[in-house]
Fold:
Amino acid sequence: MSDGARLVWFRSDLRVHDNPALLAACRGRDRVVAVYHACPVQWRRHDWGAAKVGFVQRSLRALAERLDRLHIPLVVDTTCDDFAAIPARLAERVRALRVTEVHANREYEVNEAARDAACAAALEAAGAALCLHDDQCIVPPGALRTGAGGWYRVFTPFRRAWTRRLAEEGVPAAAAAPAPRPADTGPVDVPSMAAWSAVVGRSAAALPGADRADLWPGGEAAATARLASFTKDRVCAYDTARDRPAIDGTSALSPYLAVGAISVRRCLAAALAANAGRLEGGNAGVITWIGELAWRDFYRHILHAFPRVGRNRAFQPETERVAWRDDPEAFAAWCAGRTGIPIIDAGMRQLGATGWMHNRLRMVTAMFLTKNLLIDWRAGERFFMQHLVDGDFASNNGGWQWSASTGTDAVPYFRVFNPVSQGEKFDPGGAFVRRWIAELAEVPDRFIHAPWRGGTALPTRGAADRSAYPVEPIVDLRASRARAIEAFRTIRTG
Ligand SMILES: Cc1cc2nc3c(=O)[nH]c(=O)nc-3n(C[C@H](O)[C@H](O)[C@H](O)COP(=O)(O)OP(=O)(O)OC[C@H]3O[C@@H](n4cnc5c(N)ncnc54)[C@H](O)[C@@H]3O)c2cc1C
Structure:
């Protein structure tokens, strides 16, 4: 072992398998030390809620155990409240440990990229290099250009180019974990997990949302088990099951991908193994699921190519002129799952109680907020971020801007989902609604998605329960749809 050291800086890549920064740090004979910066003030600014912070904490604990087996100490640094404090702190650590290289996996969000630029300068002054690696995507952002040399703005041609590249250059392999280092790592000041839990636990208690450790165990073992059971039992039926919120038809891997407890290359490898190695053709369920991994890449590509979306701006600049309504009461009803429209309310209650919402319902609830209520997508984006265990800037922003018709590839503004028909189509019989809205448990199937049509004669679980649920929707669906279409038409013609 040499005198020098290498630092691996963990961020949204909390795993030892297939981790390019960790592997690069472990190349050679230098001692390897790992660091993670917990930045509670920054997290709050980024709208991380209790679900996400708790999940990060569990994932870090699992990571520390894995690293321990590799004889790599993990320093969880709780001294930097926000990103601005990291460069100086990192430079200090680099000097103390005589580090020559700091390895980290690239993050594409605006503040994260600025933090890394500041760290690179501070580290250079301290005699170390910041080495950034591409990790988060299957095809790194920036790698695909249109025939004319521009950026892709629409998913379908992006996916064609994405598939072509993987077919031509090969699917990137998912690497194993590095071999254990020699046991003698020398003294490092590693604060105990209890100290870290005290700091983060305090701030998480005051954050919005619910932390459900029972539903979302942290770490890569949990992620690997989830991927294995999904690709063994469910991926082949994904194309038909994925739109049904009442059934367990999707992988629920999003929190693990968001914190990097599993690599997306590993997910792709498992999907390909279930489809005889085919990226195209073969099983429709697998191909549809690979398409979702491509969507994830696409939104990171958009964030990289069009950083305005990371600065709170619409992808389509003209949609900044939409006259969004200020309606705190309606917004509060949407947040609380009390709009009177069962499928919307069931989705919002699922989010509040579990930190996760089914994709179909994310689209339906987002469209209801931005079209029927005509409330600015940024309010919904923020609320989701504060409550999601899988909160991920690029995917959340992409999903919101898609639903609001302000984004890339966005749904045309005149195509407004009718939430009642969406409920009838994707939750026939209302099993999902009944699960989340106890007040409606005994409403007959034919009224379950529009109980107001059944009038007061509906059988209920008791007058108190029935009256606890809004008797009418908070908005007339037909009139509010027309209002939204008009608001968008005005900015195009006016
Ligand atoms: C308004 C809105 C907000 C969203 N916010 C987030 C968010 O904060 N974090 C997040 O990870 N996803 C977000 N999504 C995308 C999607 O809803 C979730 O990724 C998905 O529901 C997670 O469930 P799953 O892991 O079972 O997905 P699966 O269906 O099993 O898909 C596998 C993986 O592909 C990725 N993926 C799937 N669908 C999408 C998509 N539409 N866009 C980008 N990636 C996708 C996810 O990483 C997911 O884990 C949002 C979608 C909408 C419409």
